[in-house]
Amino acid sequence: VGAASLAAKVVRDAYVTFLREKYGDFGWGYPGEKRVQEFLKEWLERHGEFPEICRTRWRAAQRLLRLQFFPQSPSDSW
């Protein structure tokens, strides 16, 4: 199990490196990671949609979409 886990990590790290070359620095790809959230917000603002590698069902992605298309004014929150 240990060897398989290490092999999976090596493959994942190589794939993340490949994706960074294509999309830029997005962190390590975990939804709670601050860099990932910043990357998605910036990408959404520039392109109007998420990159094809984004898991759009993540709560963080859904929240960004809501804020992008339905911005709240301070008087809207109760």
β-strand number:
0
Q: Radius of gyration in whole Å, from Cα?
A: 16 Å
Please give the domain count: 1
Low-confidence stretches: none
Q: Report the CATH superfamily.
A: Ribonuclease hii. Domain 2
Query: How many H/I helical runs?
Result: 3
Task: Please state the average pLDDT score.
Answer: 90
CATH architecture descriptor text = Orthogonal Bundle
- In N-to-C order, the SSE pattern is HHH
Kindly name the structural category.
mainly alpha
Could you estimate the helical fraction of the residues in percent?
Answer: 55-70%
Q: What would the principal axes of the Cα set say about the shape?
A: elongated
Roughly what fraction of the amino acids lie in strands?
Answer: under 5%
CATH fold title: Arc Repressor Mutant, subunit A
Describe the oligomeric state of these chains in a short phrase: single chain
